[in-house]
Amino acid sequence: MTAADCPVVPVVPVVPEGYLLTTRELRLRRWQDAGLCGATGHTHADHVVLFPSSGSAVVQTGSADTEQRQQRHRLTVGQGLWLPAGTPHACPPGEETVLCALFIDPDAWSRTVCAAPATAVTGTSVHAVTVPASLRELLLHLAYREMPDDRRIRAQQVCLELLADARYDSADVPTVHDTFLAPVTGAVLGDPSDSRTLEDWAWLMKTSPRTISRRFRADTGMGFAQWRTSVRMTVAVRMLADGSPVGVVARRVGYATVSAFSAAFLRATGRRPTRVVDVEDAPDPENPPYLRERRVG
């Protein structure tokens, strides 16, 4: 992308006046709709979270003629990319992909972050986010269903809080339905530290690594290694939220060193493992988070 490809931030935001957010499915030709994301470089007045509801997608960010470094981000179901307002980006279309764009009013986001716990994601830089099935379905439900304005705004606020609360940021692991892969998935889900390679599994299952890889990608939209990392990060977030030391978590999910685990965790979640739960806000078994009174912004 070049500076010429990235027009100035639009004067009119995508989010309708009076609402907090809006979600659009970017399907093939519709990706070029005015004001939405397309294959050429552009920016938005709103914050944007891009996430696939099926298949996998590539998002390009940055510009060769700006201080923002150019990067390519590959997303699969359960993964999203946070783009602060004004971030140059492009979304090349894919025939088997449904990419969704969640546009967020910057003022609504600021209010949400101010009312969120100390671990809240500020959203001031491009970073990976988790879009679990529950949040994904709620966003798409809001996109296509009519409802009273007051109910819609309450539901939109819940969506913002789910995005803002870093304590619940974890990988969303796609369910594997292919029974052929059951030996592999069962082993990894039972023991995330299982380090057997595709070649190891191919030998055990009397098949080829390419066959296992192809069937994983057909069923989940991601390769075996990426799927296993999603499992590991999900387990890691849960253990960290329960107060387990980083070193213990690293070994439990298959990393030989804390530094290797921290680097993998940062790539997957956009933050370091020490930031999942604030030390002063560690879980109290007699006062779990879901029973605590929450401040409303």
UniProtKB/TrEMBL annotation:
Keywords: Transcription, Transcription regulation. GO terms for molecular function: DNA-binding transcription factor activity; sequence-specific DNA binding. Residues 278-297 are annotated as: Disordered. InterPro entries: Homeodomain-like_sf (IPR009057), HTH_AraC (IPR018060), RmlC-like_jellyroll (IPR014710), RmlC_Cupin_sf (IPR011051). Pfam families: HTH_18. Residues 182-279 form the HTH araC/xylS-type domain. PANTHER family: HTH-TYPE TRANSCRIPTIONAL REGULATOR NIMR. This is AraC-family transcription regulator of iron proteins. It comes from Corynebacterium variabile (strain DSM 44702 / CIP 107183 / JCM 12073 / NCIMB 30131) (Corynebacterium mooreparkense).
